[in-house]
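Explain this one:

_____
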Amino acid sequence: MNGNDTMKHHIANWAVTVLLVSGMTSADAAERVVARGGVPVISGGVGSDSEQYLKSQESSFNLKFVCALQNGDYIAGVAVTVADEAGKQLVDTTADGPIFMARLPAGKYTVVLSYQGQSQTRRVMVRAGALQTEYVRWKNDAP
């Protein structure tokens, strides 16, 4: 191995070690950040391990939604669509937990979040290098 290959090998070993020490496998890590329409997204937050992992990833994203009922109970299974200013849909997915994050180019977006038949629309301005956090709450008696 030349010097470059040796360095790559050490970095790969270090990454696997970090994943194993954190209790994640490389397959788990690969499933955590998924590109939807070319936009990297991540969701979860069910349980303290998932919540801590997402917190550690915040610096890689610039849009974050936290979803809950009005009484404060967090919810999962929120459908999320993100469209740019021209109306082009960039993301269409379902959040695996109460926290959803995306890495978008700076600009204005329309985000529609739907939970048990009730939708909410947010217009957001996303900036490069800054995390925009939005809190969305649904009625406790959502069908």
Summary: The two ends are 61 Å apart (CA to CA). The beta strands are 34-36, 39-44, 63-69, 79-84, 89-94, 99-102, 107-115, 118-126, 132-138.
